[in-house]
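Notes from the 1:1 (GR / supervisor)

We went over the backlog. Supervisor wanted to see one worked example end to end before approving the batch request, so GR pasted a single chain during the call. The sequence is below; no edits were made to it. Supervisor asked that the structure be written out right there so they could see what the output format looks like.
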Amino acid sequence: MTVTPTTAQVGDSLPPLTFGPISRSTLALYAGASGDHNPIHIDLDFAHAAGMDDVFAHGMLSMAQLGRLATDWAGQDRLRSLSTRFTAITPVGAVLTCTGQVTHRHEEHGRVLLTVKLAAHLEDGTQTLRGEAKICGTAAP
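Structure output shown during the call:
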């Protein structure tokens, strides 16, 4: 049985979302689309001068994937909030797997509200991002 926001219970998992591998082209395109041209993400010489082995992904690119996980599952109209915390960098070439699990379900003003714990992990298990989404489990009127 497929879990939906309407049927979700505490402990249920969202279908995982895999993103990547993240290439230099992905970073350049994201920089152009977002306006975030911080050289640590696109200039190898700058990254080396900063003590890094290579450039790395924009944190907001990973955060967007967690948001996508939540909205792909619930729809944009049901997302009430999204909060995240960066826990590690996402290197070039990485494949991210985003996951979510319902941790709380309650009723408020006649509507079911869900709290979903979110995380993004690299293939080696390193968590790069954690967060939480508040989702309305009932459709908007």
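Supervisor's comment: The radius of gyration is 17 Å.
Batch request approved.
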